[in-house]
Amino acid sequence: MSVIIVCIPKWETNVLVLDVLPGMPAVTVKRGRIQEATLEATKQGVEKGMRLTLAQHLCPYLEVLPVDKSREQRAFTTVMEALDEVTPFAQVIRPGIALFPVPPQQDTVEYREQLVEATIDAIASKTGTESYAAWGQTILEAWLQLENYHCAAQQRITQVEDLPLASLRSLFTAEDLNLQTVFSELLLLGVETIGEVKALGWDNLTTRFGLAAQTLRKLVEENWVPGYKLVEPTEVSFSLEFANPVEDPLLIVGQTLGQAQKLIAKLQGKQVSPQGLCISAQMLIPTQVCNSLGEVETQVEEISLQRSWAVFDFPTASEVTSRLQWQLQAWLQTQQRKLPLTSEDYSEQTVNQLPSFGFTGLTVEATCLTPIAETTQKLWGNRSASEIRALDTATKLQAKLGQGQVLQVKVRSGWDPLSRVEYREWGEQVVNAAWEDWNLKEKHRDHPTYNSQCQWWGKVSGEAPSIVFTQALPACLLTGDREVVQLKETGLLTAVPTYLQLPAETLRKLSSKAVFLTENQPVTEVYGPWVQLGGWWEPNPTKGKAWLRVKTNEYELLLVLQNKSWQLVGIW
Amino acid sequence: MSLQVVEQEPLNKEQRLAKARLQLVKTENQLGVSPNDALNGKVWHLDGSHRSLINTLQCLQNPQQWVCALGVEDFGWVAAAEAGIDLEHFLLVKPPADKAGEVLGQLVDGFEVTICAPIFLRPAEQRRIAAKVRQRKNLLLTMLPWVGVSRSWNSNATSGFSELRQVG
Asked: Which has more pLDDT, A147 or A514?
């Protein structure tokens, strides 16, 4: 597997621009001596290691900054964010140098070169910084390529063995004193290249330098390349089974609290964060059926229920149980409504005849596990205070109001403004249909017969109406002779519509939406119809529709013809 | 005829500042620009049409900002999505009529922008909610006027505000 190393030269100096104004000479000082100096300061004669008093003499307006060790790391997160556009597996060697593996499936020379270019472009566009990138089979090979960038053709090194030890210093931070000592002492011994280190023997080195020599050996000998570390696909879950059906959600929640705590501990142990929570349960519900003699009998049926919820942050055990409680209550309410008998009827029956109702099993599963590092809080937080307050309010209201009252809206792909809208409970995970991710337009863009203007047959064109009635209102399209306009078999209108007739109930509903129309409206313009046939697999299609855009003097209306009657669906 | 010369006393620092502020307000009014502080903390009413609601939201919603709508029905969600409103950060609440006032109180506490459909609220409740909005410096848009509480949303100010935000 190949690896790509990205290096931004003089990172320590580059990051100083974060804290100083453009063009201002600035330095960081350690023990009275200059540690880092900006380009502007260097132009005026300030150098690394110079005494501060001398530097201030050379440059009277010198800005002296405190040494902030985290400044380099903090600033490098911007570069890492830029690398996220190219690869999800970027790792930091030290601030200023990062590496990532080339996907093994696409490990070709062309792809590597493309990746290198994309990396440099991504960093340049995001940070405005010039960076160098090179690839190799090992880290040292890639590092060799980077070193060769600055050399003349004759001085270029061709083998890893010839790579000078001094060049490896940049791979480690100045704080890594043990390794820096190894490099200094080996240079004193006359050991200058990696080949010479190998000739000296690792046993000798390990005896002399201990752990630091082991680190060096790992880098040089083992050709260590970071691989793709994917989280195991196994889901983290817990299950409960009840001998008798349990009707009280609180009783179940009481039993699950300990399990939920273990689940969270397990997630923390695996260092993964769940993006979803799947709750599934088995319920026993009594149903009434007729036997062969025509008598009504009550039987018990077992049903399975399942729902997935999105998790916004790393969950706590109580959050899991409160979500569980809400879901169980919602299922109970839904199923109770379907029961053939009311609760009073149950109380009248004897205990022996009481049909079973309640939960018999329960599984809570944490899904979509992602490495915890990806979801950790960024420098200024992933969410603003107002966003967190909004999320909390929504969750509280949902717990208070019950199901179907706190909703989110999703607009899907489709034909008409009515069927494209989908409501889902607050926090419920969005499940996209497979066809929604096909991106056919993208896929077939290069096809010779591709036409971007083409759209599916029956799709209502133009912008969508601002009012869409979930329950269509009765309306009627009439000709000049007061005959109802219908649709021919060819998909065209039988006559040109002249009047739009609206009954009183429709007018009342419209006035509540601040739309004031009269009973008979003259039609000025008509667009369409867009015909949607019923399912071709149906022997006698009954779901066929025709959409029509009608313009009156003041408003533009969307009508639909279904079962030979016109209905008002939307208003622009 | 003697020429009468009136000498104007030089303005002090505070007077000069007040004059400059007045000039700024006049210019803002002419351009139809409203700064953020002037919009927030108030109850605004729209003309009741969904199109005006879409236009207003288009100007108001910041990226990653949550907007909540109470009791809004028959809304053109597709048109809203086409207008660039982020429905991922949009919450729709449909409480029962007897809890509407209480829920609206909680919503204006939690959300920076709240939309209230025509619901029945007593004047005392309206004033209480307006006080919450003022305290939180949030914004409440109602589809119908709340007598004595809400102000009419100025479309000029809206467009100016959006332009101002784009520049900023």
From this structure: A147
